[in-house]
Amino acid sequence: MITRTASGVPSSIMIVLMLSVFTVSIGYGVTLPLLPYLIERLLGSGVDAPQVSRSTGLLTGLYTLALFLFASVWGHMSDRYGRRAVLLIGLIGFGATMLIFAFIESLTAMYAERFLSGMFAAAVTPSALATIGDLATTEEARARRLTFVGLAGISGFLLGPMVGVFIAGSVGTLLRIDGGAGALTLPLVGTAVLAILVASVAAVTVPGVKRGDAAPKRAQADMTFSRWLVPKLLILSFIVSAAVGVFEVGLALRGKQVLGLTPYQIAVMFTECSLVMLVVQSIVFSPWIKPRTTRWFIAPALAILAAGLFLVPRASNFTLTLGAIGVVAASAGILSPILTYWISIKAGNAQGAELGKQTAAASLGAAVGSVAGGLLFDVALLPHASFLLITMLTVLGMLLSINLPNLLVTRTRGEAACDAV
Q: How far apart are the first and last CA of the chain?
């Protein structure tokens, strides 16, 4: 029997939840910087740059589109059948698809694999977040543990590009494995094995919590007033993820085709992005900042994100690009956990359903952003079209969020009681 800690979430469960999200994140990140090179290998040496750009955006977008289509479904299923069952399905299915990906030699098969991999990955994050929402006994505990799961995802994305490039370069050369799919075999198989191992531990650790089973001793959200606020929060989640999608694909393509960077330099850019996100998220939900004050960061962070997106395509060298990356990563890293926290606050007992919607909205944004980043990258009539459009959308999100802090704080009973003291 697992003993409940003061936070309501035992350390053993937190470790498994973090490892679960880490696994699907590293599985995604390991292919990202090498995807353009892998596509070139599969299509042949005579392929043109725009075709590589389109395929990179479509493949990345297809994965996140699958997340959008299935995240809410998995969230509802976790409310009905329990968190553990859905988490296990996601981890085992994700491991199986990554194992298949390790031996793919066809671009068509790669499209199918990316969709299936995203479908199973969609079950992991909503289940992990909802488990914390069910078990946490205080809002501080919920905020920080939701952030821990987010940090685990960032850490996976941080290690993924480095692992992929290292295996493709150093280890691939050492083992006399050609670049492309052959060099990616080892990290993909390793990710598949990790997913199966984490699923084995989760089977005996994570409780099969259903909606209504958990009754943590914390202030409940006032659903009467908060329902209309959730769509606004979901729209902001969409915008932030769309910005990150355009940013990621544009970064990989710009690094290769415009700045002439090596795979290692591209991996460094993604690594910097993840490190900055890791640091800012650690600060935002640190013991020195009360969770309820994070609502004031939303509009300023969106303004900074818009500025960073505007600057990225105007950075003329590797050093300036690193500076623009820091601006984008810091603002996006602040926004993601804050939006997740407030959606969880408004979710009440329907943690799986509402956090599934949040994952779906974020995934749709990432899919749209990734596809736009690839398709609009080489538009001659409108230079930097994808970055310009997402900058404008981010500004609209900033305007939408200006009055959000007052609306959020006055619609939560627990916070109203704090204000009255």
A: 39
- Residue 262 corresponds to which tokens in the numbers above? 């090596």
Say which CATH class 11-211+219-420 falls into: mainly alpha
pLDDT in tens, 314-338: 877 878 888 888 898 889 888 988 8
Q: Are the CB atoms for 71 and 360 separated by under 8 Å?
A: yes
Which letter does DSSP use for residue 262 in this model?
Answer: -
- For 265, counting Cβ atoms within 10 Å of its Cβ (0-12 exposed, 13-18 middle, 19+ buried), the class is middle
Helix (H) / strand (E) element for 27: namely: helix 11-29
Closest CA to 297 of 333, 323, 273, 327: 333
CA distance 197 to 183: 23
Please name the residue that has the structure tokens 């950075």.
Answer: 315
CA distances from 36 to 264, 285, 343 (A): 14, 36, 35
Amino acid in position 298? I
pLDDT digits (tens, 9 = 90+) for 51-98: 777 787 788 778 878 888 898 899 889 888 888 999 999 999 999 998
For the chain, give every domain's residue range.
11-211+219-420
